[in-house]
Design goal:
By secondary structure, the protein is α/β, with parallel strands linked by helices. The protein is built from 13 helices and 23 strands. The protein folds into three domains: 212 residues, FAD/NAD(P)-binding domain (3-Layer(bba) Sandwich), CATH 3.50.50; 110 residues, 3-Layer(bba) Sandwich (FAD/NAD(P)-binding domain); 113 residues, 2-Layer Sandwich (Enolase-like, domain 1), CATH 3.30.390.30.
Length: 464
């Protein structure tokens, strides 16, 4: 048997997703010798089968929605057809451009990339099986960034042909006429919004009594109304019993209030959450809670010199949070003390309209015993929203009794872009007074933030 090739390095990183490749680049910037181990594609789930490809296809959906509304703007047009294969090809080009860019960045920084499956054998050694050889890697510091995969619930018929995860849904060769989506979280609702805009009849089945259980109640309630107006059927407090083959494709049997119902469809999308990848480090006595690696403020595990970042440490499972955690892990591994500011982590939902939030919701703040002030402003009273024809939604700002902003939520067009102003406010511990006194451009959607802060202080200008 051929012996393994040996390799030593300052920093070894297991996983080339957002946390892993950012950690690798940052460590290399700081002068470290870095080995990055990745079994699949660089960029991880987000770049290859998550954030980026879904947003590329959502752009196609947004284009379809715009054309459908064109008459409102004085333009007579209609959709002659949607070429799904062209949309997917465009998505693939976007992904390819970005993955190539990540590889070039790593190469430019001198990071050694091992394409293969890494298995940790001790706190200082890993075996990597590439297509050509076995490599034994030893290190001074290790960063684990192995990410997560779609969670598959225990449902009879879940393994039938036509039952998809988000990964397979992005690779369909044609659009179905009807689709059932199991789960009304972020992933389920983004796909519901995307496919519905392209003419697919969507039914969303959710076990809980509301959509988006982790988000602000008011945001979730308003978004549900909007999605229903767009023709998306949402079944709440509904438990899926079974998926069966039928003449037309599939039938999903579910129960609501002990009443059994059935929904026919061509495809079923399972979007009930994600499962963390823990297979590669079973030989390490890591502290694990809720299937996630426990780390301290420095992103270090209970084993000295072993760090973890990204989805594998649990929490919100956001790519941009993984970026920051990977950077912080690399810096601490190389002696630069740093922490992640978990109080200022924005999250975005790319439905139509978008939803975005940062910091505490009104509910979480009140449950924590914080006496809050709340400011709110509707986009229907915003000049720019009126000109765009996107009047749905609102901005909501949460502050403590000293007017320091501790949270904010936005439902509306370009919410994912607007949330950064409020993220900066929380990061800098700014007061509502600061944003209410700041000059915003006119007409602009961001004026709704100005007005919401003014409302919190009792001096909004364009609110009755």
């Amino acid at each position: 048997m051929k012996s393994a090739r040996k390799m030593t390095t300052n920093i070894c990183i297991l996983g080339g997703g957002p946390a892993g490749y950012v950690a690798a680049i940052r460590a290399a910037q700081l002068g470290a010798e870095v080995v990055l181990v990745e079994e699949k594609e660089l960029g991880g789930v987000c770049l290859n089968v998550g954030c980026i490809p879904t947003k590329a296809l959502l752009s196609t959906a947004d284009m379809a929605s715009t054309i459908k509304r064109s008459k409102e703007f004085g333009i007579e047009s209609r959709i002659e057809g949607i070429n799904w294969n062209v949309a997917v090809a465009r998505k693939n080009r976007v992904v390819k451009n970005l993955t190539t860019g990540v590889e070039q960045l790593l190469d430019a920084k001198g990071v050694t990339i091992l394409k293969g499956r890494g298995t940790i054998t001790s706190d200082r050694e890993m075996l990597v099986q590439t297509a050509e050889e076995t490599v034994e890697v030893t290190w001074e510091k290790l960063i684990i960034t192995t990410g997560a995969v779609p969670l598959i619930p225990t449902i009879k018929g879940i393994d039938l042909e036509g039952v998809l995860t988000s990964t397979e849904a992005l690779r369909m060769d044609s659009l179905p006429l009807q689709m059932v989506i199991i789960g009304a979280g972020v992933i389920g609702l983004e796909f519901a919004s995307m496919f519905a805009a392209m003419g697919v009849k969507i039914t969303v089945i959710e076990l809980l009594d509301r959509i988006l259980p982790a988000e602000d109640t008011e945001i979730a309630s308003e978004l549900l109304k909007i999605m229903k107006r767009k023709g998306i059927a949402v079944k709440l407090s509904a438990k899926v019993k079974e998926i069966q083959k039928s003449e037309d494709g599939l039938t999903v049997t579910y129960s609501v209030d002990e009443k059994e119902l059935a929904q026919s469809c061509e495809k079923v999308l399972v979007a009930v959450g994600r499962k963390l990848n823990t297979d590669s480090f079973q030989n390490l006595p890591l502290h694990i809670e809720n299937n996630a690696i426990v780390v301290n403020d420095s992103m270090e595990t209970n084993i000295k010199g072993v760090y973890a970042a990204g989805d594998i440490v649990g929490g919100k499972l956001l790519a941009h949070l993984a970026f920051m955690e990977g950077r912080v892990a690399a810096q601490n591994a190389l002696g630069i003390s740093s922490k992640v500011n978990y109080k200022a982590v924005p999250s975005c939902i790319y439905t139509n309209p978008e939803a975005a939030s940062v910091g505490m919701t009104q509910e979480t703040a009140e449950n924590a015993g914080i006496s809050v002030k709340v400011g709110r402003f509707n986009f229907r009273n915003n000049g720019r929203a009126q000109t765009l024809g996107d009047r749905e939604g609102f901005v909501k700002v949460i502050a403590d009794q000293d007017n320091t902003i501790i949270g904010a939520q936005i439902l509306g067009v370009h919410a994912s872009e607007m949330i950064s102003e409020l993220t900066l406010a929380i990061t800098l511990k700014a007061k509502a007074d600061d944003l209410a006194d700041m000059i915003h451009p006119h007409p602009a959607l961001s004026e709704a933030i100005w007005e919401a802060c003014g409302d919190l202080l009792g001096r909004a200008i364009h609110k009755m």
